[in-house]
């Protein structure tokens, strides 16, 4: 008489069973925090370009926008799915069709990349992805600091000037108003805040909502706002604009300690490449 069947190991997949990697196109962005972060970063570059009437593109493998001709960080491109080494040449060819050779672009990948220098890119680092879970409240504004959400074209122009001068972005000077922050951007899921010191505009931050996360972007402060709490006030406003959603950002190593004081936690490091203008 035959004995009982051999027990199957619980870690063995059933025949035909698909084991998710977390990056399948049919999975929701809410599957993981990292996927939410990728989705909102991919949405951001497209939203900025669209608001300016500039070309953008979203594919299953990457997303980006052609925002302008100058500025190393002006034209963001995000890899949105794991790529085989042989796929990068094709993807970079597609990106080159969006961002012309006269302009640089900034490519960020959440995934390890092969050496892309043969394609004219320069690796500029592995910045940390940082996440802040919902909850908590912003600290009180310091004496002399005011905060305003941008709601009109004139104030948006002021915010744009603070961004370009405070980041700083010298290659965009003299600034052509509306070259980075255009009024249609405020018609979507992007919000912008200005912080003032003694009544003078001194810091800026933006929040973009997509993919179940809040992306904190365009954080900059003029010298008049540094050390006075203006930059922190604008950043807190962007971070907490949707209190039920996590906030995400890609920080520099220099900026990481500041975000950690706000409750952001480094989750992993992404890879950043620059394709200079040619």
Overview of the structural elements:
This protein is α+β, with helices and mostly antiparallel strands. The protein has two domains: 105 residues, no CATH class; 101 residues, Aminopeptidase (3-Layer(aba) Sandwich). It contains five helices and 13 strands. The strands form two sheets. Strands 7-8-9-10-11-6-12 form a seven-stranded mixed β-sheet, with helices on both faces. It has a six-stranded mixed β-sheet with strand order 1-2-3-4-13-5, with helices on both faces. The radius of gyration is 21 Å and the shape is globular. It comes from Nocardioides marmoribigeumensis. This is N-acetyltransferase domain-containing protein. InterPro entries: Acyl_CoA_acyltransferase (IPR016181), GNAT_dom (IPR000182).
Silhouette: globular
Overall number of domains: 2
Q: Find the structural class using helix and strand composition.
A: alpha+beta
Number of helices: 5
Poorly predicted runs of 5 or more residues: none
Q: What is the share of helical residues?
A: 10-25%
Domain N-acetyltransferase: 145-278
InterPro entries: Acyl_CoA_acyltransferase, GNAT_dom
Region (Disordered): 1-28
Protein name: N-acetyltransferase domain-containing protein
Quick description:
With 278 residues, this protein is an alpha+beta fold. The protein has helices at 33-51, 88-98, 153-166, 230-239, 256-261, and strands at 56-58, 62-65, 76-79, 105-109, 122-125, 128-132, 145-149, 190-197, 200-210, 213-221, 247-250, 265-269, 271-275. A seven-stranded mixed β-sheet has the order 7-8-9-10-11-6-12, sandwiched between helices. A six-stranded mixed β-sheet has the order 1-2-3-4-13-5, sandwiched between helices.
